[in-house]
TrEMBL record:
Catalytic activity: FMN + ATP + H(+) = FAD + diphosphate; riboflavin + ATP = FMN + ADP + H(+)
Enzyme class: transferase
Domain of life per record: Bacteria
Organism annotation: Gluconobacter potus
A Pfam family this chain is assigned to: FAD_syn
Entry similarity comment: Belongs to the ribF family.
EC number: 2.7.1.26, 2.7.7.2
Protein's GO biological process: FAD biosynthetic process; FMN biosynthetic process; riboflavin biosynthetic process
Domain Riboflavin kinase: 181-306
Protein name per its UniProtKB record: Riboflavin biosynthesis protein
Keywords: ATP-binding, FAD, Flavoprotein, FMN, Kinase, Multifunctional enzyme, Nucleotide-binding, Nucleotidyltransferase, Transferase
GO terms for MF: ATP binding; FMN adenylyltransferase activity; riboflavin kinase activity
Xref: InterPro entries: FAD_synthase, Riboflavin_kinase, Riboflavin_kinase_bac, Riboflavin_kinase_bac/euk, Riboflavin_kinase_dom_sf, Rossmann-like_a/b/a_fold
Transmembrane segments: none
């Protein structure tokens, strides 16, 4: 997979692709369905994705709390794992947001990227103030000999699979159900930062990872699996929240204790997959009660993860 972040300077080798359009936050089963449909419809061209960073919602609603299921580099890697040859990650800024529907098609898709065919969902909207819909897209592409495939949303017993639905499941404390929608456990990826060493004092040293732009799932304690940069996967127990017993700060954080592990992780990028919510966040009477509960949490996580 090759990542392109400047749509105005695309090499000739990246042109003439069949392109799926969308934000692809989470690269969930619905997104994979879209990619598979496009691949089967046009197997004669390399497969690409046209997406955006930051997410348009970040520009238009900056007051909203973080909501991303995955960060851009993780998204690009996930798309590569699905067989995507080129990811066109378009910088979504104020200037780009003012492109008309016609400019988006002519300047970006036709002249900039030189796509051969396009696919998207039925609700795809584009152009300034989202004035373009799929009917307009088809009309604008046709003079250039570029076809359009509209792919219906993939649904299950709960309805259409979507990024917003997966976010709600995580915020409500159902990582197992979110994993079913995603096709894999949901992960938070980020660098290990220095903390206050409280976990070490409690007998459970933790790796501290900022949530940054990730959606904040339900606060509490989770059974987790941690993927290290070298590919090893280590079972552990994670806490997401504000640690009310020992810290009344306003910033939620992810702390994860890796079982049977004693290596320096500072500065390394970890991927922490949340497997099951063990309990919600709560305040304890003191450190002794907290330490007892952490030991119980660790034992329950070990049982769930089979370690």
């Amino acid at each position: 997979m090759i990542l392109h972040t400047d749509w105005r300077n695309i090499p000739a080798s990246a042109r003439n692709t069949v392109a799926a359009l969308g934000n692809f936050d989470g690269v969930h089963r619905g997104h994979v369905h879209l990619l598979d449909t496009l691949r089967m419809a046009r197997p004669d061209h390399p497969l690409s994705v046209v997406t955006f960073d930051p997410h348009p919602r970040t520009l238009f609603r900056p007051q909203d709390p973080p909501f991303r299921l995955m960060l851009p580099d993780v998204r690009a890697a996930a798309l590569g794992e699905q067989g995507v040859d080129h990811v066109f990650q378009i910088p979504f800024d104020a200037e780009f947001s003012h492109l008309s529907a016609e400019q988006f098609v002519n300047d970006v898709l036709v002249n900039g990227l030189g796509v051969a065919h396009v696919a998207c969902g039925a609700d795809f909207a584009f152009g300034h103030r989202r004035t373009g819909n799929i009917e307009r897209l088809e009309t604008l592409l046709a003079p250039h000999g570029i076809g359009l495939t509209i792919v219906p949303q993939l649904s299950d017993e709960g309805g259409p699979i979507s990024s917003s639905r997966i976010r709600r499941l995580l915020q409500e404390g159902y990582p197992e159900r979110a994993a079913q929608e995603l096709g894999r456990p949901w992960s938070i990826t980020g660098p290990v930062m220095h903390g206050d060493q409280r976990g070490r004092l409690l007998g459970f040293p933790t790796a501290n990872i900022p949530l940054t732009q990730h959606v904040e799932p339900a606060r509490g304690v989770y059974a987790a699996r941690v993927t290290l940069p070298d590919g090893r996967v280590i079972a552990g127990v994670a806490n997401i929240g504000r640690r009310p017993t020992i810290n009344d700060g306003q910033e939620s954080r992810l702390e994860v204790h890796l079982f049977d592990f004693n290596e320096d992780l500072y500065g390394q990028t970890l991927s922490v997959a949340l497997i099951a919510l063990l309990r919600e966040e709560k305040r304890f009477s003191g450190l002794d009660e907290l330490k007892t509960q952490i030991a119980a949490d660790a034992a329950q996580a070990r049982a769930i993860l089979g370690v």
